[in-house]
Design goal:
Structural class: alpha+beta
Distance between the termini: 25 Å
Strand content: 15-25%
Number of strands: 4
Order of helices and strands: EEHEHEH
Largest sheet: 2 strands, antiparallel
Strand order of the largest sheet: 1-2
Number of domains: 1
Radius of gyration: 13 Å
Shape: globular
């Protein structure tokens, strides 16, 4: 995980949500398009953020276009 500022971390898909929770993460915002899951079979058990007290927001972004439109849409819905 990379610290962006005192409240925001950036990083790859976590293998174990316990690690995120222990690091103090309480919200996940996923920008993945969904294509990753189609072409990759993860070899670990599926975990659900709510089971660890973590809120999860899924804002699917394009793999081709910049994410501004998806982020603006999400901000207007919040």
């Amino acid at each position: 995980m990379l610290l962006v500022n005192k409240d925001i971390y950036r990083g790859p898909r976590p293998k174990d949500l316990r690690d995120l929770r222990m690091a103090g993460v309480d919200t996940i915002i996923s920008l993945q398009s969904g294509w990753y899951q189609l072409f990759n079979e993860d070899k670990y058990e599926r975990q659900f953020p709510a089971d660890f007290g973590i809120k999860h927001y899924d804002i699917g972004c394009s793999d081709v276009w910049p994410p501004e439109a998806a982020l603006e849409r999400a901000a207007s819905e919040a």
